[in-house]
Input
Amino acid sequence: MELRQLQYFVAAAKAEHFTRAAQRLNIVQSALSSSIRALEFELNAKLFVRSTRKVRLTAAGRALLEKAEIVLAAAKDARDAVSAVTEAKSGKLNVGTVQGLPAFLDLPLLLARFHERHPHIEVRLIQGGAAHLLEKVRNGKLDLAFLPVFEPPADISTTMIACEELVVVCSRTHPLATADIASIEEIAAYPFVDFEQDLGTRKLIDELFLTANSDRKIAFEVSDLSTLLELVGHGLGIALVPESVAESRESILSVCRLKEADACWEVVLASSAASDDPVSKRFGEIIGKSAVSIEA
Output
């Protein structure tokens, strides 16, 4: 039994006439008659009482009509649901992000813009460590994730969306407060406030000191950027943060540049390489437009 057969059957039942039903369906009458005969043969039951003027349903036909209309309505709902997703009219978007995104990458604003354009798409946002979020992208629990730059495996696709210099921030009374520039070795002499392992810029900064063959003391490990900056502001340590983050707190913190010019906080948008999700693509378009406006 095919949906087309049920469609022809319902049309004939409503029109009570094969010719008129065929005209409404824009098919030849012979095709409609053949389809209904095949349906009767499959069901082993007469569905219509035929006459020269009109056709009317048998008891079996009336029973089928009720169910056929339900099936056709369900099929239409299924088509509409798929169409809504492929056209990004509805669906779900699961986004992950690490802590400490560059300040110019205003994720709440991006999500608000996306919601404004696609109000019927449900958006879920989670924060976590880079490795944890990457695993969620790989197993399909996240559609997209904002992550520090990394060498992606074959099943992951990445797009660079931010690249920003890391700078030293300290309190106004700190010895580095009057310095314009400092080396890794010089700042290693002071206690640090940093993110917990696998959060924010932690991995990048650890690699920076490892490359410089320099050790540092981490006095405080935190899980959010606000706490990190508050601790630095109270003189409990220094920190390396993206330049735009430092600029957002320049009224209470002092900023010092690193001699190592290649110390950059790079953020990528990661997704499954096999994904062709239209909802994710729509979100990516909004990010792209935001990046263009920033560069302009």
Summary: Residues 291-296 have pLDDT under 50 and may be disordered. The longest strand covers residues 156-171. Residues 155 and 268 are 15 Å apart (CA to CA).
